[in-house]
Amino acid sequence: QSALTQPASVSGSPGQSITISCTGTSTDVGGYNYVSWYQQHPGKAPKLMIYDVSNRPSGVSNRFSGSKSGNTASLTISGLQPEDEADYYCSSYTSSGTYVFGTGTKVTVL
Amino acid sequence: EVQLVESGGGVVQPGGSLRLSCAASGFTFSSSWMNWVRQAPGKGLEWVANIKQDGSEKHYVDSVEGRFTISRDNAKNSLYLQMDSLRAEDTAVYHCATGSLDYWGQGTLVTVSS
Fold first, then answer.
1. Chain B contacts of A104, Cβ < 8 Å?
2. Which residues have C-beta within 8 Å of that of residue A44, sequence separation ≥ 6?
3. Is B100 on the interface with A (CB under 8 A)?
C-alpha cells in the first residue's frame, strides 16, 4: 500500500499550463480507470476535480483535464489562475479493493 | 444535496479508544460503499477503510488493521469508525467520503496525546 508518487511542487505563471504526474503500479493506476484528482486549499476539505481518469464533475472548470498512460496519470491545468494555487492529490482504486492517494503536489502561481 | 457530517473527534491518550460517526443525507446511503480518509497535520491524505453497502465486506490500510473497525447503520444513514489502541501517529482530521471518494465531509479532528 505505497503512496502514489507525485512531484512535491509545480509552479507556473498566470495563463500558462502545468501538468502534475501521478505514478503507481499495474495493481492500481495501471490496472483501473478509477483515478481521481483533488484540489485542497488550506483548512478546507478536498474537492473532486477529475474522476475516472478524465471526467470532470459538474461545476469544475474545463481548464482542468486528466489523462493516463500505463502506470502514470496526469492532471493538466491550462490557463493557470491565482485561485488554482493549492495542494493537489491523485487517488486510485487498487486490486485489493482499497484506495491509495498520491503524495501530494503544491501548485504555486508565480 | 449530498451532506456528510462527521462527529466524535477529540483528545485521547495513547492506548485509548474513540468512536467517530458520520451522518449522511442527500443520497441513497444504503446503496453506496463508504470510506474513511484521514490527514495528519501538515501531511497528505491517507485512505483508512471502506465498507460495502450491506457491511459484508470491509478493507483497511495496513497501519490500522486490527485496531480500527468500520461499520454502518443503513437505517440511520450513519457510518462509524471505532478506533482502539490509539497511537500518536493516528492524530489527524478524519473525513468520511462516499464510495468513489467523490463527496467528502469537513472532517473531525482526533488528537492522540498524553
1. 44-45
2. none
3. yes
Q: What is the rounded distance in angstroms from the CA atom of residue B20 to the CA atom of residue A3?
A: 25
pLDDT in tens, A24-59: 999 999 999 999 999 999 999 999 999 999 999 999
pLDDT tens-place string over residues B2-24:
999 999 999 999 999 999 999 99
Nearest to A104 among B35, B44, B47 (CB): B44
CB contact under 8 A, B100 and A38: no
- Cβ atoms of B21 and B110 within 8 Å: the answer is no
Its sign, for the CA torsion B19, B63, A8, A95, is negative
pLDDT tens, residue order, chain B (114 aa): 999 999 999 999 999 999 999 999 999 999 999 999 999 999 999 999 999 999 999 999 999 999 999 999 999 999 999 999 999 999 999 999 998 899 999 999 999 999
Determine the Cα–Cα distance for residues A74 and A23; give it in Å rounded to an integer: 9
Nearest to A2 by CA among B41, B36, B46: B46
The residue whose grid cell reads 457530517 is B5
Cross-sheet strand order for the sheet of A18-23:
A18-23, A72-77, A64-69
Task: Tell whether B50 lies on the interface with A, counting CB pairs under 8 A.
Answer: yes
- For residue B88, what are the contacts with CB-CB under 8 A and spacing of at least 6? B14, B112, B113
Contact B94, B20 (CB under 8 A): yes
